[in-house]
Amino acid sequence: MPASVFVAEMNGASWAAGNMTLLSGAGVSVTARYCTMDSATPGDSNPIPIPDSGHNPSYWKTHFLWISGQNGGTYDFTYVSSIRWYCDGDLFNWGSHKASGIVLVMDASGDGSEYGLGSGSYEQATGTQGTSGTKIAEHGGYGASSNAEDASALGSAFPVDNRKITPNDVAGFVYSKALIHQAWVGASAASGNPGTETFTWVWDEVS
Amino acid sequence: MQDEKVSKPQLNTNTKKDGSWLWMWIAHYNDGTSLPQYDPYTLETHLFDEVDQDKLIKFGLYPFPNSLAKRLREEKGIKVRSNIFLPKYEVSLEGSKRIIGALTTNYIRTTGYILCPKCNTWTINSKYKIVSIGGDVKTYKCPKCGAQTVWSCGECGRTFNHISETNNWKCPDCEVRVHGDRLQFYEDSVVERWRVYKLGYQQTIKGKNHKTIMNIQENGDVEMTYK
User: Which 3-state string (H, E, C) describes B37-93?
Assistant: First the structure.
């Protein structure tokens, strides 16, 4: 069997399998939702309030690929590499300009060479629940060692994880590096459910 | 009188972009033997690392035969689909050519769709045009049938196709608040998976490495790249 690759979200105090939620998988389709709480399945709870001026950030999201492909000691793929991510470049449902809404992604490398963050550097999303999240750039851990950039301005797929991942890196499964991102809702945003944004994960695989 | 029940059609999650594999590779050797990615008898999986590059004379991508696809799905749980209309692709390795094969670029995307209440069609949301935003409601114009909310002035009868044509929801001529029967567009999303297959060769000419690669889309279309 080729590599099995799913998109996943990490929440909670520590990076642990029990804190992970698969967003795509066999029979699984969970649409991640920006909100002002640390949860993969917030429902309609704790939406992001529209500010009177400027932007109001959500809690950040920690998204990554969960990769498996080793069964009973046999390898199902040779390697997975060059994991990238992009959005459709237009925060369609939030309005036609950045005053309505923007998605910021953390550039963990600080120089655009690799945006993903290793699981060992994971930090739980913080903020004031129901009110706003902590800005990535102002977080004591993340902000000191990374940049936060407008996802729509990054254009085509940008690198999240440059490693060559083989099935035997971790028995059974592998986590890719994680993309940390958050929504900033602007003062001119419309109230209510803004609909779904289109985010795409890309990777190369040699079978 | 019997209630008229109108049900909203489900977003078609049975998209062709379901991540199924469409081609398998076969390595052909100079002694007349070959190594397939999937053994048609035992269903054993072979990896590209196992290909004997010294004996390799041809490498190809071939659509799954229906019987093999069925067995791989049912006996191995591998998501493959047979499509007899897809072509095969082969690279012959004469001279100093070295194979670039068994490589795919893979995609997972969550895509938002909007359902038009008039034509009952789901369309990807980026094709929709918002005709009002920033007020108390958000509504759209259907890219298929053109259905949209139209606002009108109760005083002079002037109509407005976009709320930006009004003066903050008031008729610019009469200063009377405009009204429209708002169309209720539904939104949903679906996870789509697909891949681009890459097949080609590289060779060193006058000390420089040259790569020629076919980028094969799932519908069989090919784009060639040279590096």
Answer: CECCCCCCECCHHHCCCCCEEEEEEEECCHHHHHHHHHHHCCCECCCCCCCCEEEEC
Domain count for chain A: 1
Closest residue to A2, CB basis, from B13, B21, B113: B21
Residue A112, domain extent? 4-206
| pLDDT digits 0-9 by tens, B184-215 | 888 787 888 999 999 999 999 999 999 999 99
- Out of B103, B138, B190, closest to residue A206 by CB: B103
Number of residues written out for chain A: 207
ipTM here: 0.89
Q: Across the interface, do A93 and B138 touch by the CB < 8 Å criterion? A: yes
Sign of CA dihedral B197, A199, B111, A100: negative
| 3 state DSSP class of A23 | coil
Of residues A22 and B189, which shows the higher confidence score?
Answer: A22
pLDDT at A96: 47
Q: B166 — phi, psi (to 5°)? A: -95, 175
A-chain CB neighbours of B188 within 8 Å are 196
Is A77 near chain B, with CB under 8 Å? yes
Q: Provide the 3-class DSSP secondary structure of residue A142.
A: helix
Nearest chain A residue (CA) to B47: A207
Coil/strand/helix, residue B212: strand
pLDDT of the residue at B4? 41
Per-residue pLDDT tens digits for B138-161: 678 899 999 998 889 999 999 998
* Phi, psi for A134 (deg, rounded to 5): -75, 135
The residue of chain B with its CA nearest to that of A2 is B78
Do A205 and A120 form a contact (C-beta atoms < 8 A)? no
Give pLDDT, residue A36: 97
Tell me which chain B residue has its CA closest to the CA of residue A24: B191
Chain segment A74-97, per-residue pLDDT in tens: 667 889 999 999 987 655 555 445
Of B215, B222, B211, B210, nearest in space to B199 by CA? B215
Q: Which of residues 4-43 of A touch B (CB under 8 A)?
A: 5-7, 23-24, 29, 31-32
User: Which of A173, A137, A61, A101 is CA-nearest to residue B110?
Assistant: A61
Task: Return the DSSP state at A121.
Answer: G
Burial of B207-227, coded b for 16+ CB within 10 Å and e otherwise, reads: eeeeebbbebebeeeeeeeee
State whether A201 and B109 contact (CB < 8 Å).
Answer: yes
